[in-house]
Amino acid sequence: MTQSRQSPQSPQSLLSLERATVRFDGRPVLDAVDLGVAEGEIVCVLGPSGSGKSTLLRAVAGLQPLDSGSLSLDGRDQARVPAHRRGVGLMFQDHQLFPQRDVDGNVAFGLRMHGFPRAEQDDRVRDLLELVGLPGAARRGVASLSGGEQQRVALARALAPRPRLLMLDEPLGQLDRSLRERLVVELRELFGRLGTTVLAVTHDQGEAFALADRVVVMRDGRIAQSGTPLEVWQRPVDEFVARFLGFDNVVAATVSGQVADTPWGKVPVPEGSAQGPCALLVRPAGVRVVAAGEGLRCTVAARTFRGTHVAVHLSTEGAPRLEAACALREAPEPGDEIGVVFDAAEVVVLRR
Ligand SMILES: Nc1ncnc2c1ncn2[C@@H]1O[C@H](COP(=O)(O)OP(=O)(O)OP(=O)(O)O)[C@@H](O)[C@H]1O
């Protein structure tokens, strides 16, 4: 497994979970999770529905007690610390703004709760609205704002009490794709500038990879893999993570030396790959189309335009379909008979 940069016990960890476990009806929904989040780090937790992401956030926020294991912030155990004393900020998917209040009333909410003097509240609200790109919006009613603007107000509200840890649950879930892509870049820049430590949960891998310093993939209450976006993308550890990331060229194989025996024939593997039976991933970029008569014989079944390339779906006798990533001008047509060779640099031997 790829190691995270911080061990859960690391003295630099702002947040540290050790064997954190939550059970519902006897079933572990968080199952002995070890996780450290360093000061200033942005960690995104990814995983399919029901894998325990929200339960993890709720446990850190103090909304869900652990059944066993421990959770500390700044090295202090939080078992007996109620939610409102943990100094963490939470922003949920449906951002739950107060519809009857204006923007100022929403952003200043936490500051009023904490008894900040009025002048300081006003200063902070002004600064935060500037920061999230809504200068001068303090008097607007939240109902008159667009979805993206409401999201920014929710973010300003979560940031206002200057939480030492900001937690985001599907922060951009409701928004359309182009707005999400823009906001995620802005968020990363904003958190970097403020030095905010962030633990975010999303099921959108694009969002997680764009936002995070480190990605944590969860499966059935456990951490399947943790690493930088590049590490996880380039070297998914097992078939679950590979398929979750959208890779479909995964087959059972047996590695011997620098070659794997697969239903697609012999596939070269990188030097030093683990030997013996495994699951094998061939990234679409490693499926190279060559002239018919060379390599593995395939027929083009379909093509999908993907903006930067064309995904070409290939059928071949007696083996699962293969996806190849082809340059826009070079993609073969459906029905074409072609040959395929594999590029070892794009092949990953996965843990069984
Ligand atoms: N209060 C509860 N009582 C019983 N079961 C619960 C409770 N809260 C969550 N669960 C169950 O725990 C599992 C994990 O739920 P959780 O909400 O943490 O998953 P998730 O990864 O956030 O999913 P999603 O992406 O759908 O929000 C699910 O099977 C869910 O049904």
From TrEMBL:
PROSITE patterns xref list: ABC_TRANSPORTER_1 (PS00211), ABC_TRANSPORTER_2 (PS50893)
GO molecular function, one term: ATP binding
Leading EC class: translocase
Keyword Iron-sulfur: no
Residues annotated as domain ABC transporter: 15-245
Record-given protein name: ABC-type quaternary amine transporter
Domain of life where this protein originates: Bacteria
EC number of the protein: 7.6.2.9
Organism expressing this protein natively: Streptomyces poonensis
GO cellular component, one term: ATP-binding cassette (ABC) transporter complex
PANTHER family: SPERMIDINE/PUTRESCINE IMPORT ATP-BINDING PROTEIN POTA, SPERMIDINE_PUTRESCINE IMPORT ATP-BINDING PROTEIN POTA
